[in-house]
Amino acid sequence: MYSRKVVLRVSFAVVSLMVAFLLTTCAGGGGGSTSPSDVTDVGTVAPASMTASGVPAGNVPADMSTMKTDMDNITSSDPLLNDLSTTFKNIGSGVSGKSIRTAAPNTVGKVVLAFANAVHKDLSSSLQTQLNKVYTDVQNFPTTKSLNENLDLSGNALGTYVYLTKATAAFSGSATTTDGGDLVTSGTTNLKSAQAQASVSLVLDPTGLSSSGSAFKDFKVKVNAGGTASCGTATSGGKVVPSNFQFDYGVSGVLAFSFAVTDSGSGKLVGGKLVLTVSAKNSGTIVDPTALDESAAFSALAPSIKATLTIYDDSGNVKFTQAWNDITTFMTDMGGSSSPS
User: Which neighbouring-strand residues pair with 172?
Assistant: First the structure.
């Protein structure tokens, strides 16, 4: 179950990360564009462009249930899965670490520092300079109340087996305070309004995977995401609270991989080539964010999606395809929860 959840939810996980990044920056700044949710479609990945799985056509799954069963044969000790798990644990540890929480005033700063710890240790001087600038600017945001950042992380490795063929991001932000002074980051006590804009473009390819012994023979991830968010404040019960939260975001992504693994029951080699495409977008206004519980907030912010999963044999013949246009069904079929946890 572990391997299937890790792999089949990678694309949606990236989507969720982008959405979280685009929306949580509201507390730390903004900009704006006319149609931020109209991101460029990343397209798909041709099965012929992926390394062959080596699995006989008759052993390639022809339905969702068989696909899940086949993928459950991949253990958590698989070199690629273990590398991804370690990398994201490092990021998670960095984001939640006390020293980083103390040093950085908001989510963006935490993510920047955590990412700096997660990417390959041989950071280029250009990348280190970029990350240092972003971190410094985020630290100074309460005073400057403005951000305008661009990052190009292309050409670096994420962990051992993931290469950032393209990894660019841009985000800007601004905030106004009721008293014209520095922004109080311990709450919204003097925040008047804030707005944010962000965009991300990713292309991930394998590096050194063929000699790793992994069940995965090849993979590619492509993501484009963009959006804006803004909010004002209101006084409720003597406290300043966020109000009139407006958002607009869009994501286009594709996850493709080929794999081969021995079935624990039959002893047969099973696997094939899988391509999952996802597009998601949403926009709206939440007049009183504080009135929403976690479930209601998820319903308001969750995107409408279009997703398609196609399984091919090594000759490029389609063995199975399924489409979704509902996020709840999609997440359930992918083996995950459709509600916040």
Answer: 148, 197
**Contact in structure between 44 and 186 (CB atoms under 8 Å):** no
Phi, psi (rounded to 5 degrees) for 23:
-90, -40
Hey, which residues does 205 pair with through a beta bridge? 163
Whether residue 97 is predicted with pLDDT greater than 50 in this model: the reply is no
- Under a CB-based contact definition with an 8 Å cutoff, are residues 283 and 255 in contact? no
Burial level of 257, CB count in 10 A (0-12/13-18/19+)? buried
Give the number of other Cβ atoms within 10 Å of residue 296's Cβ. 12
For helices 79-96 and 107-118, the axis angle rounded to 10 degrees is 140
Give the pLDDT band (50/70/90) at residue 42. very high
Q: Which residues pair with 176 in a beta bridge?
A: 193
pTM for the model: 0.80
The residues that bridge with 241 in the sheet, in sequence order, are 234
Please state the separation of Cα 333 from the chain's center in Å.
19
For residue 172, what is the enclosing H or E element? Answer: strand 162-177
Report how far residue 37's alpha carbon sits from residue 107's, in angstroms, rounded to the nearest whole number.
Answer: 22
- Residue 88: band (very low, low, confident or very high) from pLDDT cuts 50, 70, 90: low
Distance CA 253, CA 334 (A): 16
C-alpha distances (whole Å) from 30 to each of 122, 141, 250 are 32, 12, 16
